[in-house]
Amino acid sequence: MLTNPELIRKFGVLNSALANESDFLSTRISYKLNLRGPSINVYSACSTGLVTVAEACEAIEEGQCEQAIAGGVSICVPVKSGYLYQEGGMLSKDGHCRPFDASATGTTFNDGAGVVVIKRRDLAERDGDRIYAIIKGFAVNNDGEEKASFTAQVSEVKLRSMKPLFNGPGSIRRPWALLRRTVQQRRWVTR
After folding, report:
1. pTM: predicted TM-score of the whole model, two decimal places
2. Cα torsion 119, 121, 127, 129: sign
C-alpha cells in the first residue's frame, strides 16, 4: 500500500500503514465486525491454526465469549521465492505436500487462509446452528529438546500432554462445535 501514491493521498500515511500491518489483523477484524471478547494474533509457525482453535476453545470455556473465530493466514506478496531441494531435508522433492501419504517427500511453502467459527456444542444445538465437526479436546505444548531436531515432528512429550484429553471419564470438559469453515489455499513452487 505504501508504494501506491493514490492510496497515500486518499487515506494518509498512518492509516495506510495501519491497514497493512499484520499485528493488527485480529483487532481490525474485531473492530470491523463489532466483535467482543479476546482478539489475539497468534504465530507459532506450522501450528498457528491449531493453536488459535485451542485458544478459542479456552476463551469459550472460561466464559470470555460464547463463540469465537479462529484461523490462520499466510500470504507472501509478491511471490518471488521458492526453495532448493536437499536430500534428507524437510522440503518436498517434487513440489507437492502429501500429509500422511506413503509417497510424501516433504513439505512445501503455500499461501492460504482458513477460518472456523467455534461455539459450545450445547449452545449450537440449542440455537439450531449447522455443525460441521465436533472438537473433543485440545492441548498446546512444546517438545523442548526431546525432538530429533528443531523442525522434527511430534515427540513423546507432546503425545503425553494430549493423552489425558482422550482417556477415561471426565477427560473432555465439554465438546465444541465447528459451525462454519472457510478455507482457501494457493500452492506455489519455483523450480
Report:
1. 0.73
2. positive
